[in-house]
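Lecture 7 notes. Example A: sequence first, then its structure tokens.
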Amino acid sequence: MVYTEIAMIAVVFAVIVDLLIIKTRLTRKKVFWTSYSIILPFQLITNWWLTSRNIVMYSPEAILGVRIASAPVEDLMFGFSLVLLVMALWVFWGKQGFQKS
């Protein structure tokens, strides 16, 4: 279950960065969950397309075995982590003035 463990660590890491390190607290805001709900269907479609055509395959020993839209649930965990970290860093760097030209 290596893939599962890494996916869980990624989720915990992303939430800790959001809440405790850079303190953007996006997971507590409706705007984040609204944005994520828009992104999620596209992630599911992409994961379905890649896994149902065996473009991406997973070892049964490395995952839990729970699949959503043909992809392992761990893919959703990674997707959540990536979206949260990117959005949190975008907000954080915007407040730091990194986005000014």
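Example B, a different protein, same format:
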Amino acid sequence: MPPPAQAAQLRRARHRDDARRTILSATEALMAESGYAGFSMRALVERCGYSAPTIYHYFTDKPGLLEAVVEEKLEDLVKELEGLPAESDPVDQARTLSLVFARWGIRNPTHYHLINQPRDRDPSPGSAGQRAVDLLSKPLGNLLQSNQITESELEIISQSLWACLHGLISLPAVRPDKDWSPGLLEASVDALFRGWLDEFASRTRQGGSGHEGQ
């Protein structure tokens, strides 16, 4: 048996872990039921059984609590992205990663809404949020490094992809009354990448790797 002091320390650590898990699970359940707009600390106190000061002791404030919930859910996304087989074509890899991310967002509309809220700071290095960004950005970054696209084109492609995915993820959540086509996500992402592929192919035929003078 561990010494009394060590045993007490283990009990306190277990208690902290149990408390955090209970609070996070209750927060997750409340957001699933009522979304971000319907979430309140008062409802959380009633649901989890811990007082507001105790909750703030573990998570500092409401934004810190919601950040922890999103971070945990993003870990699931990162595992899914990391488990994908590597593809030799960066465009194919970008397409696959984009579809996985979009499906995650569609399955988790409240968490997706939270990750798109304005933040005072960028995701910390090593966080699930930053790792997800790095994984999603890598294929297009490879196109830049191999001189298949320029930096300005990378920015345009990234923003157009973001705008496309955001609409495909968000609209079904805000307009569930609409009869959305089952193949809309895949067809839209394919069309976007096909357009850029045509641009790459035409540039190759012209013998250049970037737009001169840009």
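Note on Example B: The chain has two domains: 1-59, 66-214. The domain at 66-214 is CATH 1.10.357 (Tetracycline Repressor; domain 2).
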